[in-house]
Structures are given as structure tokens and as C-alpha cells.
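Quick note —
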Amino acid sequence: MTKELFRDDSYLKECTATVSAVQDNAIILDQTVFYPTGGGQPGDSGTFTLSDGRTITVANTVKDRDTGAHLHLVEEGTPLPNVGETITAQIDWDRRYTLMRMHTALHIMCSKVDGAVTGGSIGLEKSRLDFDLPEVPDKDELADAINAEITANKPVEVSAISDSELEANPDLIRTMSVKPPMGQGQVRTIRIAEVDYQPCGGTHVKSTGEIGPIRIGKIEKKGKLNRRINIHFAE
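Predicted structure written out below.
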């Protein structure tokens, strides 16, 4: 299993790692700063610098469901490093930081909409959450409520809750279709002070002020009780 350095520090831009395995167009490391696709958040892209100075472009990162290893995907035909080789892994920081801001903004929106989450997706230009809602919320009121929490610059903290504590507090889980992974003893959580607290494995900013102002885009009807709310950066 790959050690996930980004879980404790989302601001790590690079790390030194050892190649544990290679398969097809994937490179597996003993540890990584690259976030794998999951929870609606895209996987990281970036570069590997090899011991001979050669640079490999990593197009995407996904997680092997069976082994827990992170598969750093490169273009077909790319010469791969040797197992045991030491490399420097560096993420595309501007892209990651944009996704961190978006992800945290969605947590704030989740706290302002009184409905269970039925789906979601995080993007660079637009992100969205789907809610189990009978009525469409007012776009301006929702945007004002979210932007107020952003302006307040509230701290965002990473912590953990035990499996048993989560089972005793099922209301912490806002998603209807996807439950956080359990069985390891603890589940990672994200807390935005006085705003939101829920299990989440994604990467986030340290304070809401880093997000910057947002606006609400389309609110789409995706079923009898399903409303899709799109969010954009205001700038």
C-alpha cells in the first residue's frame, strides 16, 4: 500500500519516493503526494524526475481497489523507471490548489442546503452537488450564505473519528449513495469551524478565505426530488 502523504498535509507539492512496482503504463511508489481519483475529486497530475535527470509526465492518478496502491498513469510507450529507483514526485500545484478551493466550497454549500447529497463532482471551472430536494433553493440567497462563510475566513481542520463513533453518529454522513471507507479503525474527517463536519478523504485549504468569492450557476432538475446545484468561482 502506498503511503498517502497528502492526507496529513494537502500543501505538500513534492516528495522523494522509491519505485515499488511498474505495470503497463502505471508507476507505483512507496509514498506519494499525488491524490488518486475519488470522492468526486479528480486525481492529480504532475511529473516524476528520475535519478538520471529524465522527466516523466504523470497524466492521472488512480487507486487500485484490491491492493490500495496508487497507480501514477503515464502515456503509453513512456520508458518506465526501474523498481527500487529513487525519484522526485511533483504535483501540478496550480491545478491541485484550484481543486482544493473548490472542494472546500462544496463542503460549505453542503452545510447551507437542507437535503441529503445524492452525487457530486469537483472540477477546475465548475463543481456541483446533487441534493435530495423537492424545491429549488434561491440562488442569490445560497451564494450570499456561502460567501459569508468564505469572507469569515474560518479554519479548516483535518481530524479523524473512530468507526464506532461514526456508527453512533450516522447523521455525519451526508451522502446517500457512497459511505466513507471503514474497517481501518478510524475515518478521516474535515471540520470547517461552526460550519460543517463530515467524513472526507479529499484535499482542502486551511481556511475558507483561501477559496475566494463564488457564484451559483445552474440549478438543474435531475429527477422528482433531485436538484443539481452548480458552483463557480466569481472571478
